[in-house]
Amino acid sequence: MSKHAPSRTWGLAQPPANSPGAARERSRWRWPVLVSLLATIPAFYIELLEQLPTPLATALYLMAAAVLGGALWRVARRLDHPRQYLRRNVLDLALIGGFALAALLPASVESPASLAVRLAVALLSLVRMVWTLRPWITRGGLGYLLMLACAVLCFCGVGFWALEPRVQTLGDGLWLAFTTAATVGYGDIVPSTPAAKIFAVFVVLLGYAVLSLVTAAIAAMWVETTERRIEHDILRELHLEVSALRAEVAALRVQGDGPTPPNLATPPTAPNPAPPAKKPAG
């Protein structure tokens, strides 16, 4: 693979590390893409609710396709290999085609093919929104994840309040959103309309994922606290052993600088014996 080729993850290619202009362009288009993807949520329910005109849904889908295609092209034109980058962004290309197809088909429950296309586009949009929010989701921190979970549950509660006739108040919508996201299902309030049932599917997928992140963050915080305590105990024991070793080394040095014990003293060297006197000749 060429060093200029972007990495491929879940059908989305990141700009190469040596292309700061493309990375800045992708970051600049992050919020417009997210807003356009969020706009496709009411477009999905326009004909299911039969309260808003169909041209509005068509306009929202076409807007999302235009924004996503513009963002993809603006990033690709700053790279050395734009075609290779476009081929690797399978999810964005599929969403652009899906939005264009959904704009031409009526969103009616009487048309299984049209409903299947819009459901597939909605699932792909959910994956793309999660990918867009990935830098904030993976940022960590229990407080941050709690705020994210509250925002998601509030959004889902408002959705149930607008889609389900049995939900009379916003509090009932929030309660239904929490029980649906937590997969509890007490049965006091249940989705009854096709629009509410379809919305409940996305609430389960999104809400359960967010709640799982919160519980995982709490578990990680407990595990981290336990690991820190164990590391503190190990370091304290290590410091005690090092201190004892230093004391022993200091004691050995003191003994080495003192007088030499008698049993280890070097015996004195005996004087050389005098040579025998020579006898006189004759």
Automatic annotation (TrEMBL):
InterPro entries: K_chnl_dom, VG_K_chnl. Keywords: Ion channel, Ion transport, Membrane, Transmembrane, Transmembrane helix, Transport. It is a multi-pass membrane protein. Residues 148-221 form the Potassium channel domain. Residues 259-282 have a biased composition (Pro residues). Residues 1-23, 256-282 are annotated as: Disordered. It is found in: Membrane. One of its GO terms (biological process) is monoatomic ion transmembrane transport. Gene3D superfamilies: 1.10.287.70. Pfam families: Ion_trans_2. The chain crosses the membrane at residues 29-46, 58-77, 89-109, 115-131, 143-163, 198-223. This is Potassium channel family protein.
